[in-house]
Every structure is written in structure tokens, then in C-alpha cells.
Amino acid sequence: MKQDYVQTIYNEKVRPKTSYPKKLTKYLIDRFRIPGGSLLLDVGCGRGDFTLGFKENGLEVEGLDSSDFSVSELGRSGIRVSKIDFSRNRWPFSDNSFDVVFSKSVIEHLPNPENFICESYRILRPGGRIITMTPDWKTGLRIFYDDYTHVHPYTTAGLRDLLLLFSFRQVSSEQFYQLPVIWKLPFLKIISWVLRRIMYPSSDINIKFIRWSLDLMVLGSGIK
């Protein structure tokens, strides 16, 4: 019998919780100037690390996932999670009802992202923002399929064009380092650049600065 993806792959014994989600969500709130109290939907929220991070940093949050584990796990924290196949079905929210739609490491699991993007646009209020993060194919191609549920790789150009095609404005798309120290000290990117020239990405690398210097994300955003 197939096991729950979130409960199995993101088991806390294998992937312990850290302070990173709170740091990343604070960075995104500051960078995109998201006002306190804004209503955010975390699509593919999983065990809720980033959902809780946004909540702890002053936003109102809801989740959307296809996992029963997500519903029960976040329910204990008082966060509403709607269970649905969000890649195929209409999402259970009214038009123009959220200020932010966020997803991290989700869109690469979807064979066809059109429903995901269309529904994100529909439920965002005018002026609302989509923020999507996905593994960067150019730097992570050697380990992309370590997760067999990955089906659609993205580059900065690919994610940018996807958002533009579905009417988002002020679209941005960039390679993103999952290293808080680089957010504060951007000149350290040169060290990461050198590491990428002499080493290959690997899921087995345990030194965070090295691993996340080799394996970048694509960060895309746009306004409705």
C-alpha cells in the first residue's frame, strides 16, 4: 500500500525541523514588502514548516495539500488546511480572496502547471502576489530525479515565461541561494560560484554552505 508522501519523505527523523523556514519567510516578507496581517495561502504546504513560519512572522495563513497528514499536522496548530488535488481541481476559495499565494518545492511535481497557475491568479486579489520556489534545473540536474515524483524541471527563463503567459505583471525570476548568510552578505556568492565549478551537487552532502551553494532554487514572483 502506498504511504503518505509528506509523512514518509518529510519524516522528522529523516528531515528534522530547523529555524530555516522562519528565516526564509521573514526574508520574503521583507523583500516583497508584504504587510502584516496579509492573508497567505501555502499551496502544497506539506508538514507546514513554511506555513508556520509565515504565521510566526505576522501573516494570516491557510494551507492547501493533497495529504491527510498535512491536514491533521497543521490542524493541531490551529491552521486550516483544505485537502484537494490542487493540480487538477478548482480550489475551494472565492475569487480575489488572498493577498499572497506561496509555494516551495511544489510546481516541479506537477506534469501540467496550468491549473496551479490559473487558480493562483483567480484567488489572488488585484495587486496580490504569487511567490513560487522550485529547484533550479541548471545547477541541480544531477540530483533532480532523486525524488521520483519530480516530473517538470524549471530554469529561471521557464518560470518567468510561465508567469508571463498567465497574465502576471512585474514578473521576476532568479537563481536563489538557500543560505541566509548570503542574503545578508551577497559578496559571498563568489565562494558559492567557485564551489559549483569544482564540485558536483549531491543529496549526501551534509555541510549546508556547500550543499546549498551547489543546489540552487529558482525564485519566481509576479503581481495580479
Automatic annotation (TrEMBL):
Q: Where does the record place the Methyltransferase type domain?
A: 41-131
Keyword Methyltransferase in the entry? The reply is yes
Q: Which GO terms describe its molecular function?
A: S-adenosylmethionine-dependent methyltransferase activity
Q: Which GO terms describe its biological process?
A: methylation
Q: Does the keyword Methyltransferase apply?
A: yes
Domain of life, source organism: Bacteria
Q: Which keywords has UniProt assigned to this entry? A: Methyltransferase, Transferase
Q: Which PANTHER family match?
A: METHYLTRANSFERASE
Name of the protein in question? Class I SAM-dependent methyltransferase
* Record lineage: Bacteria, Candidatus Sungiibacteriota
